Amino acid sequence: MASVRDAKGGVRESVTDDIIDKMTEALTPSQDRIQLKSIQNLEYALVYEGQSEARLKSGEPLVVLVPGVPGTERDFRYLSPLISRWAPVVRVVFPGFGELHHVEDAPSTIEERGQYLRAIADRESWGEVMVLGHSMGGVASLQWALIDPRVRQLSLLCSVGVERHRGMIFGHRVARLLLNALRWPFFGRPLLAMFRRQYRLMGFRGHPLHLRQQSLILRHVRDLDFVYVRGLIEALSTRSHLQVGLAWAMDDLVVDQSASLALERAFRSALSPERLATLCLQDGGHNPQRSRTKEIDRWLHSLYSHSIINT
Asked: How far is residue 138's CA from residue 224's CA, in Å, rounded to a whole number?
């Protein structure tokens, strides 16, 4: 079991995969099939939970679940069925991963990924939505919320943000150097093996991480602009109707609590108190949607009811 230091300097044990498996074994994971679509040069993949498509057409506001990097259609598979009890819900897959692993030149900047999400919303004719972005999906969701008035509620879960986090083991310059090195077999093969071991240690199971995927991950690191994220948060002041939720876990080994608290401070400086709701979990790791599924579901339900149903 790994351990990390909490905000007071004490040692806190993290949630292991075995404990997470025991927590989720009583929950029923989503069995819905992924839909692969290609419309006007836009290739995308969605998983609508249960009768969500029919409910969406009847006018119910949609909940959109946006994964991090790497992320696949398996993300949110335990949370999605719970959300479907009170709202239609869909899971998004970003190009380059999961069923879209074959896509070349996938978007990697925050702006590109936010525009990609809006393009999906246009193609699917979504109306008002609530968005939950996890990890790197958080800043993509933030970008989408600022360019699309259909986003009425934005929630970020263990999101990267305004300063370097523990999981970002190297910075932008090193990412650029590694991208170049991966192109040469002499360097690329051992680097790829090293990256695979590192991601397994951080809890990313079920990700084969081929060369193209690892290159895309490095592009995301290279393009993660903290100054740009601060600018997006400051711009939220112009979107008075948009409500924001921010959740994190104290024992997160990827986005550590220091980075999460810095993100919280940035939001508090930009938003009035009534527009920001926070949830700090004692434990849950980087994926509390797996280890604290029911708590996350209850929190999201309250935000949905307050921000969308009652406005």
From this structure: 12
